[in-house]
Amino acid sequence: MQTSRLYSLIFRNFTKTYYKPKFGNLNIHKNYFHATRATNEADKTAPPAEGFMTEVAQSKFVKNTREEALNNPELEETNVAQGETKKMNMFQAINDAMRIALDTDDTAVIFGEDVAFGGVFRCTMGLTEMFGKDRVFNTPLTEQGIAGFGIGMAAMGHTAIAEIQFADYIFPAFDQIVNEAAKYRYRSGGIFDVGGLTVRSPCSAVGHGGHYHSQTPEGYFTHTPGLKIVMPRSPIQAKGLLLASIRDRNPVIFFEPKILYRSAVEQVPIDDYELPLSKAEILKTGKDVTIVGYGSQIYILEKAIQIAEKNIPGLSCELIDLRTILPWDVDMVAKSVNKTGRLVISHEAPQTSGFSAEISASIMERCFLRLEAPIQRVCGWDTPFPLVFEKFYVPDAIRCFDAIKEVVEY
Fold first, then answer.
1. Which of 2, 173, 286, 372 could anchor a disulfide with 317, C-beta 3.0 to 4.6 Å?
2. For this UniProt entry, which segments traverse the membrane (predicted)?
3. H-helix or E-strand spanning residue 360
């Protein structure tokens, strides 16, 4: 771990030289962070997230018992199938995944803004104390630097787990991720790679985030060959998909819908397990309409399906969670649409050039003769993300129901 220690010292010295505290009084600055840490340690069971997503607690997709959690074909092939589970919310499941990653891989390190004392969402809470300051450490407020640093560490053979504190601030790192990380293997003819890089970032609406803390920017990155993009819907999914992302030999951006950090609670297997990347999951089978989403939008779509099936007699909807957005499971979606003849896609990001456009075009090419109605997209509006009008901006259950009704009655 000498290389890891050297890297952490370099970043620490850079911080001392160039990074100045927000507070003019250094004592206030120190007391603030000590108080924050004390609060984090004391508050082990955080309350549910505020906001508009009340659907999560009542969701049939949330696994509330050990039997439900382990009754999963993808877990049957792992060593957790007969193991124990523990009640965790999503940030705790993500924390557990990173603990396992650090424990099973001596080259793994975690770094980002404020991660050493747990991060603003507490996802790294306790990891510094467990693994030391050379493996879990803070960086300056420079997203470009965080991404570039991670690329350098991964190029030297480390497993680099970087955190961008909010997905809205990933854009300063765009050049490093898109032009360096994504192309590193290609431009070296396969001699070098940065496959050990994973970039975690909280994303999407939270009920009060405004236009700089609510965006869902996956569409910007899905245009880039060489990257993998993942977005989980629940604690079980988050732990398994994050471990798979960290161990995958390609750079991965792991977007975490932050409204689910506390609102999504499940019985999560306590042992080490991975869930497959680039494989979608059918959450509900149906024969009349295929509905596709990912992340927190899955719970909105579940509610919309309940409304639709209640109001339209005999209607049967099939719901698919993509999970991995790039490369996405086009075969599963196409097979479903060939059966149902109808497709509705929904995500929080704006509609124009959103990933729903790629899904729509690909399914049109593969399933044109089977389609019974135009494909419907239910997305965020083509405006900056508003604060006071957030509930009108996000694609809610009624808008999704209207799209389902549209394709059924076409």
1. 286
2. none
3. helix 355-367
* Contact (Cβ atoms closer than 8 angstroms) between residue 300 and residue 292: no
Residue positions annotated with a catalytic role: 143, 213
Query: 2-269 with 281-409: one CATH topology?
Result: yes
> What residue type is assigned to position 67 of the chain?
E
Backbone angles phi, psi at 168, to 5 degrees: -60, -25
pTM listed for this prediction:
0.89
Any idea which fold 2-269 has? Rossmann fold (3.40.50)
Q: How many residues does the chain have?
A: 410
What's the one-letter identity of residue 312? I
Token representation of residue 10: 């370099």
pLDDT digit of tens for each residue in the chain (410 aa)? 444 454 555 555 544 433 333 333 333 333 333 333 443 443 444 444 445 577 798 899 999 999 999 999 999 878 898 899 999 999 999 999 999 999 999 999 999 999 999 999 999 999 999 999 999 999 999 999 999 999 999 999 999 999 999 999 999 999 999 999 999 999 999 999 999 999 999 999 998 888 999 999 999 999 999 999 999 999 999 999 999 999 999 999 999 999 999 999 999 999 999 999 999 999 999 999 999 999 999 999 999 999 999 999 999 999 999 999 999 999 999 999 999 999 999 999 999 999 999 999 999 999 999 999 999 999 999 999 999 999 899 999 999 999 999 999 99
Residue with the two structure tokens 């996405």: 328
Long-range contacts of 171-177 (CB under 8 A, 24+ apart): 171/143, 171/217, 171/220, 172/142, 172/143, 172/144, 173/143, 173/144, 173/146, 173/147, 173/148, 173/199, 174/220, 175/144, 176/144, 176/147, 176/148, 176/151, 177/147, 177/221, 177/224, 177/227, 177/251, 177/253
374 to 16, 49, 211, 212, 307: CA distances (angstroms): 57, 36, 31, 34, 21
